[in-house]
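Entry 14. Two folds queued back to back today. First construct below, sequence then structure tokens.
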Amino acid sequence: MVTFAVANTERSRCKVVPRAQQPATALEEFSNESCGDIVQATVLEPVVASTHGFVHGVLEAYCHHHDLVLRPDDLWLAIMTQFGLFVNANANDLRQSLVAHDGSKELVVEAIGTLYSVDFGALSTQMVTHMEAHLVDPSLKDWILPSFSTTTDDDVIVGSVVLMATMKSFFSYKYVLRCGIPNVTLLGTTRDWEDVRRRLERLGSFGPRLARWATMLRRIVDQCVAAAQGAHDTDFWNSICTKIPGGSGPTYITGWISAFCVFDRDGQWQADKKPARSSDTSHDYPYVDTEDIPPGYLTVDATIDDNGVLHKAFLFAGHMAYRIGDDEASIAPVLSWAIALKNGPPPPTKTASRRK
């Protein structure tokens, strides 16, 4: 880093007021392209929105006696943005020197997740890696992407999207999101999972509904046994849940996870429900309104006699949480219990809303 004097003038205070906003929302393309929700974006401190933050920022500093701070990334990507405009205006003339294919080639990247959970920045950098194989000179990618000592992850993402936009006459881009679990770890032994299956047999003795429930559960546990034996079924583990939007009505889930929701919070059978608009009867597992997912724990009153002093108590036990792994990329359900004295403030007034 180096700082040097340029003009013998006194520094002045900036009069332009930065605002906490996503600058993309102020651009004409945002409205012209009917943009609405911003799914992801660079996390910014308050800034001054501009159609050319580099040029306008330098001009503001120059004309109003402000110090200027520049990074090589700023300079280079300002150049590459101009280069992109040039390529898009001369795509036909430049095609043979840039790509080896005719027409537009679709590039696809896939990720496990949903619209609001995947990392679109990382996916964009993957996209340009896929592009590399279709370039006449693969070094074009590394030439455009910044890699200076000041370069941040966001700078690389910006460079990647600049490259995608530069080459949009030759490529189309698709992000494919899959709900699923990258890896599953089943703890315990095969014998443990076989023991779970044996225990299911008793459920059927409690009536026809529980016999039906046991049939659902048996399919799930059979897959756990097979996986423990080294024969996992990827399709099964990728079919944990299907979410069915309800528009202005309820949203439902189905898939094998719903087999753990056949009784509502009041113990009433809810496995025969289905969306009003659905005529599909082929599902092996129930449809469950997401607001009717029952608690994963049970509670019970108890009395404690503490050397002659009686206390009313309340016990909780079950799945009341899940754990995030040390790698910050894995989840495990957590079984826990608690006992509490009933000596707190009176309960709040009940409302008509259902607990989620």
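Second construct, same run, same settings:
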Amino acid sequence: MSSSVGDNSLGRGGSDDNDDDDEPDMDGLLAAEDAAEEINEEDAVMNSDDDEDEVILHNDAIAYFDLAPDSLFAIAQHPQRHSLIAVGGSGGRSDDAPGLGWIFDAERRPVLPPSYHARPSSLDSLGTLDGHSDSISALSWTLPHGQVLLSAGLDGRLRAWNTVVAEEGGNTTLSLLAEAREVDEINWLAPCPDSASHPGVMALGASDGSVWVYDVSSEEEPLRILQSYYLHTASCTAGAWSLDGNLLATVSEDGSLCVWDVWHLFADAGLRAEAGGGLAAVSLTTADQRFAVDGGLFSVAMDPGGAFVAVGGAAGAIRIVSLPRLSPGASPSSAGQVLASLCSQSDSIESLATTRTSSTTLLAAGSVDGSIAIFDATRRFSLRRLIHSAHQGLSVVHVDFVPSSSSEWLLDSCGLDGVLRRWDLRSADHHHGPLREWRGHRGGDDGAGGVLGFVRGPGGHPIVTAGDDGLALVFVV
């Protein structure tokens, strides 16, 4: 697919699609009548199909990366050089196309005269991720320094790339360190957040239900297996670490939840569950009717305070389960209790996110039915807000709270409509529209397109997206 990005009709401001009277005041955002601009045929954004049908998009991006010949399924951000982005997906449209990935610097844009400032600029590749015989499904740099980039594929390969980040103006380089292939397909990657005690530790989930934990910090053995778990009996669909890095929660299409005691801390304290042969601190399956979700589980999120884990599955079902605590007098029986069963949405829960504000803990859930639900954990997980058509009736792909203490009530979401939106959750009004939105990707109302992931710099900006249209776009807030 040959792609190019056309005219930026709103410059750097993003677009505002909310006409509600109670919309927050957006100083500096262009009014619709001031921003309106006709996009001519010569400003075509991309050629989408083999028959060269032209798709014209409204584009708010300041820069774009368009070397991918097909869908971008994965995106990652360097933990220290936040402008360094990795994207990956399919290397072509045929069924036997290999997986390919690239890294680029979202801030390394050509110097242009003032007349070009309204037009997005093209970004160059700094390196290519190859060697996968099927699509790249997940990408992640190791913590804390981002010395190694891991690419995981639907071919089951896990490839470790040494990343040498140059000083400003220099060239960043990639070189292959090692490859492992223990499974048929890899679904996700998650770096351990406790980078002080466990630097370079990475977890992954596979299509056979297995979960693997690797140590990627050693130059002599850059992909050393620390743990492997086999309690799930179907594909392991999602995984998340606790904020302190002590626990790893995983879910599966078989409807099971496992919370792994990776470092044996809970076993040493006598706080492991009896179920699962003592391998997990918590292990729940569909045999427990209080927990059971028909159709499987697809998303998971940990409470920042370590009190609970939330899992989302088919038909809008969400279960809240208590976690073990490493505290004096703690009992194993306190963990694994179903604290709440939620169902405010009608289709599968594809993404979950949590945040702790100054007054409460919030849980956000994005659904295939196009809605986003917000629950208040301090009020027995009562529904605070339900955004019925967050992405024009198309699936919500990912939700995530803005990582800034000054923006604790802000949530970003992307969907198959091809739009990235930011929501101010201080309002509990179900009909309150988005605070901001950014367009540029092809929408997916015809069964193709959409934003499949995003990353952000400190404070929630800039935002870089990966699309099913093969584009990565850079937006400013």
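Quick look at the second one. The helical segments are 32-35, 265-268. Confidence is low (pLDDT under 50) at residues 1-56.
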